[in-house]
């Protein structure tokens, strides 16, 4: 049961930053079509003026999330919500799938990568659809 | 009559270990394992016969053509059909798409209705959604009850309109009128195992729409029970070769000759033409018209040998064996359900279901449950099983599914039940 390390079980049972933000700058939805998992992510940003494109100075200040998911996707969202504070676009892209695997204890079954990256894929949307 | 231990010896893969445990393969609904005879037939073909079909007058080309013709005959006999009515495809999805492109595009018009059910695999739903949207036709979907059986009469009717597609959902009785041009339905649910009474439904529909065409998705039927296409009273039957002990890359569409003969080709290219001139071409007769290009020759030959294997076992014996397994599994799982450990989905009556068992471990996501079971060597599928509208109608995002076949045993079911007990323990801190 290499994938279910204590840290994963901990974040799964006590997810951090679970819920919603009253004053979110952006909300994003992401889902896994094959398993029905869904996540809504809300973030507060700095270095960004609403209505204008997010740029290299835009930094994630706070993240809240909610949704239904398995232990892997839930733990990954919970851990990411702490990790990504202070990250800009470049930091987030550099973090990548390798960062997720490392964060989850260094081993993720290939069949579960979609679970592991659900929240991360949602976060990348901050820098897409720019200006919304 | 049915010595499962002898059968198991015919499947080399059942010898392998997974995470140090004996493999317990419970995902034949996705694809079945292959017996030695099928593997060997394909290997022999590549070693000794390999040549393209219908292309050469030389010995090997003639041999491989005869082998493909022979496989077509075996498949035809297996389902009570004529050889020219058997079209080889890559899989059942392609068979269903073939009907959509070659028959649907020319025969479904604005205001017509295509009728399906909520049990459908995405491959028997999405093509019809797209065709209805394109043709401004209406898609009607027979809803399921809480046991996963199709609703025949009564209940509420719902109408949806989204993105240019009109969808009506309700019981069969409310959805059938003279506008129904195609009834495309599964013969056995790939998720819940439900065996809809297609014959009664077809007769009911034909009373109100005599010219309706009927397509049966028999992907979960042909591998598991005796099927005779004439008795199904259908016009088209689609199924996969790889779910019935045959190789991947093989599927079948059966269609009535008089309908196939009027259909346009599916793909254009080699081997499907009559005469080709610079200014245009004519089409070969069925089945060649629908089999452009070099087919999966080795795969088709393997499929023929898979049919031999099943014929040898006897399809009535196959069905009996699976009924015994599902009965046993349901009894065992019902006990777990009483203990509050699992939730079961699908009909409880053995006569109304095939060998697919959908369940969830309480408070555990199906992906987690499946991965924990995998750590004990058990292969089950988790997710939406390419049937999202069905799965979500039970108020859950996903399910775990165990499917049984000729090589599965009661001992494996005991092992599954035993290991399901281990699943929640992983999350106890």
From TrEMBL, chain A:
<dbReference type="GO" id="GO:0051536">
    <property type="term" value="F:iron-sulfur cluster binding"/>
</dbReference>
<dbReference type="Pfam" id="PF01592">
    <property type="entry name" value="NifU_N"/>
</dbReference>
<dbReference type="InterPro" id="IPR002871">
    <property type="entry name" value="NIF_FeS_clus_asmbl_NifU_N"/>
</dbReference>
<feature type="domain" description="NIF system FeS cluster assembly NifU N-terminal">
    <location>
        <begin position="4"/>
        <end position="123"/>
    </location>
</feature>
<protein>
    <submittedName>
        <fullName>SUF system FeS assembly protein, NifU family</fullName>
    </submittedName>
</protein>
<dbReference type="GO" id="GO:0016226">
    <property type="term" value="P:iron-sulfur cluster assembly"/>
</dbReference>
<dbReference type="GO" id="GO:0005506">
    <property type="term" value="F:iron ion binding"/>
</dbReference>
From TrEMBL, chain B:
<keyword id="KW-0663">Pyridoxal phosphate</keyword>
<dbReference type="InterPro" id="IPR000192">
    <property type="entry name" value="Aminotrans_V_dom"/>
</dbReference>
<comment type="similarity">
    <text>Belongs to the class-V pyridoxal-phosphate-dependent aminotransferase family. Csd subfamily.</text>
</comment>
<dbReference type="GO" id="GO:0031071">
    <property type="term" value="F:cysteine desulfurase activity"/>
</dbReference>
<protein>
    <recommendedName>
        <fullName>cysteine desulfurase</fullName>
        <ecNumber>2.8.1.7</ecNumber>
    </recommendedName>
</protein>
<dbReference type="Pfam" id="PF00266">
    <property type="entry name" value="Aminotran_5"/>
</dbReference>
<dbReference type="InterPro" id="IPR015421">
    <property type="entry name" value="PyrdxlP-dep_Trfase_major"/>
</dbReference>
<dbReference type="InterPro" id="IPR015422">
    <property type="entry name" value="PyrdxlP-dep_Trfase_small"/>
</dbReference>
<keyword id="KW-0808">Transferase</keyword>
<feature type="domain" description="Aminotransferase class V">
    <location>
        <begin position="24"/>
        <end position="416"/>
    </location>
</feature>
<dbReference type="GO" id="GO:0006534">
    <property type="term" value="P:cysteine metabolic process"/>
</dbReference>
<dbReference type="InterPro" id="IPR015424">
    <property type="entry name" value="PyrdxlP-dep_Trfase"/>
</dbReference>
<dbReference type="InterPro" id="IPR010970">
    <property type="entry name" value="Cys_dSase_SufS"/>
</dbReference>
<dbReference type="GO" id="GO:0030170">
    <property type="term" value="F:pyridoxal phosphate binding"/>
</dbReference>
